[in-house]
Amino acid sequence: MGRTSYEKGKFGEFLVRERLKKPFNLKDIAENGIDLTIKPKTILERVTIKVGLKDREIDLIVKGNVELWIDVKETKGKYGKREAE
Predict the structure, then answer these.
(1) For 16-69, how does the pLDDT look when each residue is reduced to its tens digit (9 = 90+)?
(2) Whole-angstrom Cα distance, residue 17 to residue 63?
(3) 59 neighbors 70 (Cβ within 8 angstroms)
(4) Where are the domains of the chain?
(5) Which region holds residue 52: left if phi is over 0, alpha if psi is between -120 and 50, else beta?
(6) Neighbouring residues of 27: CB distance < 8 A, sequence distance ≥ 6
(7) Residue by residue, what is the 3-state secondary structure of the chain?
(8) What is the pTM of this model?
(9) For residue 28, what are the CA distances in angstroms to 19, 34, 35, 85?
(10) Contact assessment for residue 17 and residue 60, using Cβ atoms and an 8 Å cutoff
(11) pLDDT, tens digit (0-9, with 9 covering 90-100), for 9-18
């Protein structure tokens, strides 16, 4: 069961990455995104960034006319990485 969930997550991340290679509108990919066209120049994957006191792993960082951090979530039951350490 865990392996299937992992594979679905990796495939979902691949689909999002492929969709972000061309210029896109933010409201098309986000639930509550604003009307902003983003032209990507570089896409970084699995980058660890220090936010506050914790280190967070960001799935995709799109750098272009703005810098966009994306955490890919596929299902309603998946809440992301464990917060308690």
Answers:
(1) 788 888 898 888 877 787 888 889 999 888 889 888 888 888 888 889 888 888
(2) 13
(3) yes
(4) 2-70
(5) left
(6) 33, 34, 35, 36
(7) CHHHHHHHHHHHHHHHHHHCCCCEEHHHHCCCCCCCEECEEEEEEEEEEEECCEEEEEEEEEEECCEEEECCCCCCCCCCCCCCC
(8) 0.63
(9) 10, 9, 9, 34
(10) yes
(11) 667 777 778 8
For residue 61, count CB atoms less than 10 angstroms from its CB and return exposed for 0-12, middle for 13-18, buried for 19 or more.
middle
- Strands laid side by side in the 67-70 sheet: 40-51, 54-64, 67-70
Q: Which residue shows structure tokens 């604003």?
A: 34
Six-digit token string for 52: 């506050």
Handedness of CA 36, 64, 53, 13 (dihedral sign): positive
